[in-house]
Amino acid sequence: MAACATIDFEPGRNWSTQVAERNAELMAQQPQRRRRVRTPEFYFARHFDNSRLVKAPDPARVREMRLFSAAITVLFSLVMIYGLQHFYAIESSYRVESEKQVLDQLREENRQLRLSQAELTQPGRIDMMARQLGLAAPQPGQVVHPNARADSGTPVIAQVTPPAQ
Fold it and tell me: Is the model's pLDDT at 3 over the cut of 60?
């Protein structure tokens, strides 16, 4: 296993001299690091001068990259549109289901109100409550309906006729 170390080189000394000294120092430390196994470690100095390299423009590569970018953009847009439609459909189904539950609740409440109305308007119940309050059944001719036409054969309780002038 190679040792990883940073090397601070002194500016006044020769590069190769400093590398050789560092290698000698690492060789001296090897027995302490490993037991009975001596693996030499060497640093090789390589100098690359890339200042003269110039990247030439490649129009075919640029065209390929633009086409690839456009294709990826279209694909991404289609996936996003599909995803939005899918999530809107799910949201709509949840909304429809909640509206169905509200409709069922309203139907049940309406049924309960109709039962309550039928119970409250029961003639026997109304008659019993009227008797508890001391009311009696009306006598014949006691009830006058203002919209009803008077038959000529039935007796009339009272009529007011204005005097002729």
Answer: no
